[in-house]
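During the reporting period the student researcher (J.K.) took over the structure-prediction task from the postdoctoral fellow and processed the backlog of single-chain submissions. One of the processed entries is reproduced below for the supervisory committee.
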Amino acid sequence: MGTFNSGCARVEVPVLNRAPPGPMLMVSHSNTYPGLTSPGWEPGEPDRYYPTGQRNYARVIATDADQGTAAARYAASTLHVRRCFVLDDGESYGVGVAHRFRSQAARQSIMIVGTATWSPRQASYRDLFTRVATQHPDCVYLGGIYDNNGARLLADKVAVLGDNTKTKLLGPDGFTGWPDMDASPDAAGMYMTVDGLPLATIAAHPGPATRFIQAYETRYGEVPSYLVIYGVAAMQVILAAIANSDGTRRGVTDAVFHGAGITIPAADSVLGSQIKIDPHTGDIVDRELTILQESGGTEQVVQSLRVS
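J.K. obtained the following structure tokens:
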């Protein structure tokens, strides 16, 4: 079960794929890098992770590509934006999520009125946002991470285009988890996507989720993080694969990637919703994400979305 970081998986999956006497199954609860299972992110992906030609890697959480999709759907259906300018920070993560946002926005009748890349080394972005303003957007999407001079970027966006209620501001989880951003008035109102569901949403489902959370609190004296729950979901897939196998390493892997694959019904799932692994890719079929909004100096859960 694992890995925790996508970068580790990119190293480990090919090794486990070549392991005798057959590829060893690996199921991650937190890897969100799309190239592990899908093409279009870096050359040779995902085939370079599977030298034997057989898949052995699966995951139970959505990917960064899904963040762009979820943000575009939310922008169209809930925020009712119609004209959006898309910025990225020039790095693979930012470029990737921005590309997926643009692709999905077109399907949601959102006009992309322009694109540009911001350099983390710039002292000011006022000229950039002055150019953005000429396109009269009602939305700006930031594909990238806050650590790439996000404080200055947000300040100049607000200074030129107005606060984030006037011109909506959206971004991926690269803009979450930064205390100084939470405390900044320039971030107020910004929407962000996060792969997976928050603990409160999972806990609302009676059954395995509630029982596990209660047992965890009893044993450890604290509530688990949502990734602990996704770790249990990954283990559920592994145990189901073992149960459906012939007892060999290859048989366990084949149980996930041949035939109908693995499905954990909602009534048995620790996530409270069905866990179905696509045997062709290893991705979870019903991918769930969370929309957050900066409000009162904290990241507030606004809505959960499912993409498939």
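The committee noted the following: The domain at 65-195 is CATH 3.40.50.2300 (Rossmann fold).
J.K. will present the remaining backlog at the next meeting.
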